[in-house]
Every structure is written in C-alpha cells, then in structure tokens.
C-alpha cells in the first residue's frame, strides 16, 4: 500500500522515496518526466555484471564473488591464481 505524500501530482505514484516500498525509489517516469513513479533503479545505476540491492530506498551496487572492478561501471571476472602464487 502506497501512502502518497500530502503534495500530490495528477498521475503520480509518489513524491518522495518514502511513498514507495523500501526496495524502490521515487523517480521521473520514462514516458513523462513530470510524473514520478516508484521504480527499481538497479538497471540504470549499476554497471555491467554488477549485483544491485535496494534497501530502505538506498541503492547498493557491488561486484559478485569472484569479480572485481567498479560496480558502477563494470565488474570483471578475476583471473585464477596460479598454484605458485598461493
């Protein structure tokens, strides 16, 4: 159940993040930037092969286990270590 803030716009799902479920954020609609919708921000925020979690409207991008790099740009598989390197 969404509790829209006191300042409501026609067609808007939200005005601020707390109008949305904790795993979503309030952002402009792709079809009409003047109308705000509750959306999953992960596809447009995190980089290639990165994992994304939204907790209490906060976006966290990270590289999965075995990967390294900048999770906001690209995560790459880490090279396997040779036996003599261990």
- Count of structural domains: 2
Structural class: mainly beta
Label the overall shape: elongated
Cα(first) to Cα(last) distance is 53 Å
Overall average residue pLDDT:
86
Q: Cα-atom Rg, whole angstroms?
A: 18 Å
Q: How large is the count of helical segments?
A: 1
Task: Explain what you see.
The protein is mainly beta and 86 residues long. The chain has two domains: 1-39, no CATH class; 42-79. The protein is 5% helix and 30% strand. The protein has one helix and six strands, in the order E-E-H-E-E-E-E. The protein has one helix at residues 42-45; strands spanning 25-28, 36-39, 51-55, 58-62, 67-70, 74-77. It has a two-stranded antiparallel ribbon. A two-stranded antiparallel ribbon has the order 3-4. Strands 5-6 form a two-stranded antiparallel sheet. A hairpin with a 7-residue loop joins strand 1 (25-28) and strand 2. The chain is elongated.
